[in-house]
Amino acid sequence: MPELADIERQVTECRRCPRLVEWREKVARDKRRAFAGEDYWGRPVPGFGDPAARVYVLGLAPAAHGGNRAGRVFTGDRSGDFLFESLHRTGFANQPRSVSRDDGLELRGAFVAASVRCAPPANKPLPSERDNCLPYAAAELEAMASVRVIVCLGSYAWDCACRLLGIRPKPKFGHLAMFEHERAVLLGCFHPSQQNTFTGKLTPAMMDEVFARARELSDAF
Questions:
Q1: If both were cysteines, with which of 70, 87, 149, 175 could 75 make a disulfide (CB 3.0 to 4.6 Å apart)?
Q2: pLDDT in tens, 64-77
Q3: Full-prediction pTM beyond 0.90?
Q4: Which residues of the chain have pLDDT under 70?
Q5: Among candidate residues 11, 128, 1, the one with its CA nearest the CA of residue 62
C-alpha cells in the first residue's frame, strides 16, 4: 500500500505534462504584481489533510496565483477562503484561513486534493493531463482506507471521481447529488469559484450543508 509521504514526493517531482510544466513555471517566474516579493512554489501541488480522513474533498486544479504560489491546495485565493471557512464551521478545520504552508492549518477527518495537480492555462486541463494526474488521487484513496465520502467540488471533480471508481454510466452531477458506491459515497457540491460565490449560486450555508451531510454519511457508511 502506498504511503502518503511517498505519494506527495511523487506528485511534487512530476513532469509528465509539458504544457503544464511550462505554464506553472512561467507563472512562478513572471508572478502577479501583488505577490512580486514572494517565492512561488511553481510545482505540482500535493493533497493535504488528515491521513485518517473519512471525507476526501476533490477539486479541479490549483489556481495559478493560489496553490501554485503557496504550494498547498486551495491556499491563497478566494475559493480556498470560502472552502476552509466552511470546513472550519463544520468542524473539519482548526482555523478558517489557508494562507501559506506554515500557517498552522490542520484538518481533522478531511483530506483535500485536486484532480489535476498543476495549475493549467485558463484553468482548463486537457484530457491527457487529467489522465496523467488521476493516478495520484487513486493512490491517495488507496493509502487512506478510512475514506467513506468523496466530496466533489464541481462537475469536473464529479467526473474524475466517477473515473477513479469506474462508475458507468456517470450519474448526473448537482449540488448535494449523491451516489453510493461500494468504496465511497460521492457527494456533489458546486465549486467555490468566485463566479459561483459572487452570484449566490453557492452560499456559505449551502456549502456547510454539504460538509454536514458528508459527516453524517461518513459516520453511517
A1: 70
A2: 999 999 999 999 99
A3: yes
A4: 1
A5: 11
| Res 221: pLDDT | 74
H-type alpha helices, 42-193: 67-70, 78-89, 127-143, 155-165
Q: Cα dist. 176→19, 41, 147, 152, 198 in Å? A: 34, 33, 18, 10, 20
Residues 6+ apart with CB under 8 A from 20: 116, 118, 119, 120, 125, 129
Closest of 85, 140, 70, 91 to residue 112, by C-alpha: 140
The Cα–Cα gap between 132 and 9 comes to 16
CATH number at residue 204: 3.40.470.10
State which residues form the domain around 196: 4-220
Instruction: Please tell me the distance from the alpha carbon of residue 31 to that of residue 65, in angstroms, as a whole number.
Output: 8
Task: Give the separation between CA 22 and CA 15, rounded to whole angstroms.
Answer: 10
Q: Which amino acid is located at 30 in the chain? A: D
DSSP letter string over 8-31? HHHHHT----HHHHHHHHHHHHH-
Q: How many domains does the chain have?
A: 1
